Amino acid sequence: MNSKKIIIDSMENISVYKLRDILCEKLNYIIKSHRPIIILCIGTDRSTGDSLGPLIGEKLNSLLKNELIIYGTLESPVHAKNLCTILREIKNKYNNPYIIAIDASLGKLQNIGHIIIEEKPLSPGAAMNKNLPKVGNLSITGIVNISGSLEFMVLQNTRLYTVMHLANVISRGIYHCILKTLGSKINSDFDIVLNSSIKKSTSKI
């Protein structure tokens, strides 16, 4: 499996379409084979920096709930305490699912706002030194803040703007991938709202 790391700067004007094209290339065969696709959005709304996953899940649940299987929303987040239970549920309920795992991450200052796509599992809670199972056939992570010491406090003090911008770009990238691959119109009114929110994101992260 090619685990080459692909990095997108979410502040680029074409970031949504870069993400769309990357996902289309990687998911085209999966979608056409009718293999169940699980979007597993990891995180909690109790921490600003760790809320990236649930925010993306919330947006996608409104956009693509009939096209994809989505776990992890603001109402029902997937986090450290229930991740293993959710993974068992997915294993028991779906035959050979393809899991796209989405989570927030910490990185270098100059990389805040970057989106990382890899064809390998991600390690949830790695920044917090949590011993959780690796998950995902494909992983998408958004760098929300700087890594170093006191990661818990760093996540708590992350700018909501940064997280929301990343959530908008990632959810739109996934949405446009499904739209392009399936060749159908899905909830275009909601996409107009997302487009508007992206265009208003003009300040630096």
UniProtKB/TrEMBL annotation:
Keyword line: Hydrolase, Protease
Keyword Lipoprotein (UniProt): no
InterPro entries documented for this protein: Pept_HybD-like_dom_sf, YyaC
GO biological process, one term: proteolysis
Superkingdom of the organism of origin: Bacteria
One protein family per Pfam: DUF1256
Residue ranges that the Swiss-Prot or TrEMBL entry lists as coiled coil: none
UniProt-recorded Gene Ontology molecular function terms: peptidase activity
Signal peptide: none
NCBIfam families: spore_YyaC
This protein's name: Spore protease YyaC
Lineage: Bacteria, Bacillati, Bacillota, Clostridia, Eubacteriales
